[in-house]
Every structure is written in C-alpha cells, then in structure tokens.
Amino acid sequence: MEMTPRRQQMIDAHVAETRALMADYAFQLNDLVRFALSAAQDKPLKVYYPMDPVNEAIRNWRGLSQKLARLAAEVEATTQRLGVQPFDPEAPAAGDPPQR
Could you write out the DSSP letters of every residue in 8-59? Predict the structure, then answer.
C-alpha cells in the first residue's frame, strides 16, 4: 500500500470519528440501561385505578422500544458509512492529488 498524506488524513479522520461515535453510543446505551432499571423498580405510588401499574408498564415498554429503535437506526446508518475502509489500500495512489 502506498501511503500518501491524503490517505493518512483519511485514516486518521475515520479512526477519530469512529472513536467519538462509539463513546457517544456508549453514553446512549447507558441512558437506556438506566431507563430500564428505573422502570423495573417497584414504585410505591398510590394506585387510583387498578390498571394504573399496567398502563405505566405499557408506557415504559413503548418508551424503551422507541429509544432502542432510534439508537439502532443511528448505529445502522453509522455502520453503512464507517463500516467500510475509507479507500482501497490495494489501489494505486494515482487518484490522490500529487505531492509537492
């Protein structure tokens, strides 16, 4: 593989963006875990209607499902973009701008 400054910049940018997004997704996953743990705890609230706890559980499932689907869509879009090499390492560097 012929290494040029442009190719090195592409590699560095790809790695930096990957690391930043991985950290961001880790925080988002942490938020989902905290949401699920909070929803799993027994809440000693006053029940005004016998189905109130069931309705709250349904809302929690919907909320978790929506948040998880949104995160999965973001990860899939990122994978489509960053899940490939930024250039073909076997191709000659002729397409790169000439060095001065």
Answer: HHHHHHHHHHHHHHHHHHHHHHHHHHHHHHHHHS---PPPSSTTHHHHHHHH
75 neighbors 21 (Cβ within 8 angstroms): no
Which residue has tokens 């909070």?
Answer: 38
CA–CA dist 66, 72 (Å, integer): 10
Please check the confidence at residue 100 and state whether its pLDDT lies above 60: no
- Distance CA(90)–CA(77), nearest Å, equals 26
Look up residue 85 and give its two tokens: 């090499």
Per-residue pLDDT tens digits for 34-48: 999 999 988 777 778
Residue 6 DSSP class: H
16-38: buried (b, 16+ CB within 10 Å) or exposed (e) per residue?
eeeeeeeeeeeebeeeeeeeeee
Contacts of 35 (CB under 8 A, 6+ apart): 63, 64, 67
